[in-house]
Amino acid sequence: MEKARILIVGAGVVGLAVAAEISKINQDVYLLEKNERYGQETSGHNSGVIHSGIHYPHGSLKAELCVKGNRMTYEICQKHGIPYKRLGKLTVAVETEETEELEKLMRQGTVNGSEDLKMLDRAGVKRLEPSVEVELALHSPSTGIVEPDELMNHYYNLAHSNGAVFVPQTEVTRIQHGDNEYAVDGVSVGEKFTINASTVINCAGLYSDKVASFAGLDVDKLGYRLHLCKGDYFRLGGKPPVKMLVYPVPKGAGLGIHLTPDMTGSIRLGPNAYYVNDINYEVESKEEEFRTDVKRFVPSISEREIRKDSSGVRPKLQGPKDGFKDFVIRHEKDHGLYGFVNLVGIESPGLTAAPAIAELVSSIYQNDIAK
Hints:
By secondary structure, the protein is an alpha+beta fold. The protein folds into two domains: 2-45 and 149-224 and 324-369, 3-Layer(bba) Sandwich (FAD/NAD(P)-binding domain); 49-146 and 227-316, D-Amino Acid Oxidase, Chain A, domain 2 (2-Layer Sandwich), CATH 3.30.9. It is 28% helix and 28% strand. A hairpin with an 8-residue loop joins strand 19 (328-331) and strand 20. Helix 1 (13-22) runs parallel beside helix 9 (350-369) and helix 2 (61-80) crosses helix 9. It is elongated.
C-alpha cells in the first residue's frame, strides 16, 4: 500500500502553492488531481487579476491574505520572470448614491493595508482614462494582472524540484480516519487505489465540500456547503478603450462586470455572477447584458464589437441570500480529525492570496501537526 506523509487533494493554484511551500522542508508530499493536468477548473478560468484587498472586511482571512499575497505575487513574478503588469485599477461611481460605497471601499482598503489608494474626481479620472465617464473613482495602483498558467507552472516546478509527487487523473472517493493516519481511497487512471497519509490537506476547490464530507464532516452543519456561482466573459473587439482595470461599485455576488486588459492589452468584459447547479464552461449570458452594464461608465462601448470569450465557476460559501463569507482554512482537530486541514470556499481573491495561503497552511502543519 502506498504511503505519504502529506497528501494534498486538488491541484489548482492554491493546491500547487501549498505543495510548493510545504515541500520545502517536508518529504513524501503527494498532490492528487482528478483532471489530466493541474489548474483545469477555477484557476484556469479567471481574470488573472492581482487584487489589492479593498473588497474584503477588515480582519477577514480574505483581506489579510489578499494584501499579503498581493506583495508576494509581485515579488514572485519579478524574481522568476513570470509575465505580469501592475496596471492599477479604477473602481467607479456612476451615480451619486454609489459614492458612499466607494468611500467605504477606500476606508476598508486603507485599514486592510492596500497601498496608495486615492480618490479621483472626474478630471483626475479623465487624465488616466479619457474614455471613462464618471464623477468619482477609487484608484488602487497595486492592482494588476498576471498570466495564471505561468504562475501555476512556477508553483508546480517548485513543488517538483522539492520532490513533491504530482498524480493526475486521480480522484478521491473516500477518506477513513484510522490510528494516526488516513486511508484515502479513489480511482487513478481507471484503477482503484488506496494511499495512507499522516496528513490530508483539502485544496479541492469546487469539490472541497465533497472532500470534507468524505472525511466525515457534516458540511451543512459546519457551514461548508458550497454554492456554485458562474461568471461569463466577453471579449471586446478593436482598439482597447482603457489601459487600466475598470470596475463598477460591487453589487450582489460578484464584483460587477468590469474591464480587464490581458497580457496583450486586449480587453475582456466580465465576469458577471449567477448561481448554477452544475459545472460547465459554456458562456450562457447575453452580449447586451454586458454592453448595457459597461456603457454606464464607458459609453463608447455602445458601438463596439463584443464576442463570447470564456466562463468560470466560483466555489462560494456565500449563497444567493447570504452576506459576506470568509475563506475556511483550518485544522479540523476539534472535530476529531487530527491531521486533516480544510480549505473550503477559496474563490476570489484566491489567485492573489495563493502564496500567503500556502504560508498559512505550512505554518499550521509545522506548528500544529508535525511537532
